[in-house]
Each structure stands twice: as structure tokens, then as C-alpha cells.
């Protein structure tokens, strides 16, 4: 049973007349007759009965008709949605971002984007998570774009730098290091250390800079989310190296600049290299990159 047969069936049910239905469908009457016979043969039931020169739906046809109509309506709806995605000014983007980007970066960026009249028809669904989870979602095409850390050995993902993020040492209020103007990483060695978990985009970087500084404090726990790390530091559980995100200042901790020279920490816009990039995604990608290049992010 194919789409045309279903469309022919609905039209014949509406007109109850082969010639008028065939003319409306721009096909010959024998072609319509054959399509209906093939459908009835596949179902093993007659759907129409003759009444003089006209035909009418029998009880099986009446039972079948609402299912066919609903199926065709859903197909039309799906087709319209898919066609909308081919427009550069209408559609929905699934955007993922790491936790620290949810305070100001993403809300401000999306507000700027949607303030442009041509972008009013573009909407977003948001997901938060770790870099490793978002890279997986990109490759599974469950997400269109992600703001996250860079990941080595991911040739299927394109990473565009879009923001810088400063790392600081976080210690509980009243800690022996609290009043320092800056702290070397070696000075953290005597204190219990809270580390990011391995699925965090920051794990590799923090591990690298600690090894470079020959600083090997005792790791008391691993955690993936920045706010949870800040809460543990505030409670006196340990010290940490953490991004200086917007709400960190509201925790009961002190933020201290790192004395060691560090490479710049960038955040990235990540997209799946093999995805069919729709016009709305090109519009959004170009907007984000233009903001980064002009220093407006």
C-alpha cells in the first residue's frame, strides 16, 4: 500500500464517484479503479459498494477512513516541519552547554540573537551537561550545537573558539591562603584537593597544569559540576581549581588568582562534522562566530 493509494481512497470516499474523483486527482478512471482494487486486495476486504452508477463506503471503508485521514494529516504536518527547517529564518535548534555557561553567556547570547528581526522565527531547546556527554550527543545527532571544552582526538567534531574562561584557586573563607594576592599551584600540595571527574572537559587541563607545577595534593573526591565543587569548597571539604564563573562570588569561599603562567583557557562551539547543517544552524553559527571575532561575546 502506498501514499497515492491512500490519497486516492480518501478522494473517492469524499466524492463517491469514480469519474469525479479521477478528474480531481488528474488521473484516468481505470488507474483509480486499479489502485482501489489493489488496496482492497492487500487488505483482503472490500471498502466500497456499488449503488447504481455511484459507489459508497461500506462499513469496512468507514472504519478505515479515519485512520487514513489521520495518517495523511500527520504526514503533511511532518512534511511542513521538515520544509520549515530548510528556511534560514524559521526552525528549532537544540543547543547544549556546560554548566558555567548558563549563568550569563548563553542567556545574553540568545537574547542578542533573537533581538534581530530576521531571527524571531528561530527557537531553542536547551540541554546542560558535561563536555563528554555533549560530544556524544552531537555524534548521535541528538543535539545540533554545543558550547563546551575542547576534546582531543575527536576528528568528527569541529571546535570553534568562542570565549575565554579564567581559572582560579578556590579556598574556604578563613583558609590559610585566603588573603594571598596570588597562589602558586605548588602551594596547594598540603591541602585536600577537589578534582573534576574524568568526563569533565576541565579534568585534562587541571591535571596537566598541576603536573607541570609538580604539585600533587591528595585528591579527596572527583566531581563533574562546578556549582557542586564550589559548594564543597565552601563547606571546607577541600580546595579546588575552578572556572571563575558568574555566581562563584556568592559562595562562602575566596577566589585567588593563579601565580603560575597558564595557557589561555578557551571555550568552544562544537558541531558534528558529518551533520547536514541546516540553514538555521548556519545562521546561528555565523552569528556566534561574528560576535567572537568582533569581541562582542
Automatic annotation (TrEMBL):
- The species is Megasphaera paucivorans
Pfam families listed in its UniProt record: HTH_1, LysR_substrate
Q: Return the CDD domains for the record.
A: PBP2_GltC_like (cd08434)
Answer whether the UniProt record assigns the keyword Transcription to this protein.
yes
Q: Which domain of life is it from?
A: Bacteria
Please name the taxonomic classification of the source.
Bacteria, Bacillati, Bacillota, Negativicutes, Veillonellales
- Keyword DNA-binding appears in the UniProt entry: yes
Q: Which family does it belong to?
A: Belongs to the LysR transcriptional regulatory family.
Q: This protein is called what?
A: DNA-binding transcriptional regulator, LysR family
SUPFAM superfamilies, alphabetized: Periplasmic binding protein-like II (SSF53850), Winged helix' DNA-binding domain (SSF46785)
Keyword terms, alphabetized = DNA-binding, Transcription, Transcription regulation
Name any GO cellular component annotation.
Answer: protein-DNA complex
Give the HTH lysR-type domain ranges: 1-58
Give this protein's Gene Ontology molecular function annotations: DNA binding; DNA-binding transcription factor activity
Q: Which PANTHER family match?
A: HTH-TYPE TRANSCRIPTIONAL REGULATOR CYNR, TRANSCRIPTIONAL DUAL REGULATOR HCAR-RELATED
Q: Which InterPro entries match?
A: LysR_HTH_N, LysR_subst-bd, WH-like_DNA-bd_sf, WH_DNA-bd_sf
Q: Which PROSITE patterns match?
A: HTH_LYSR (PS50931)
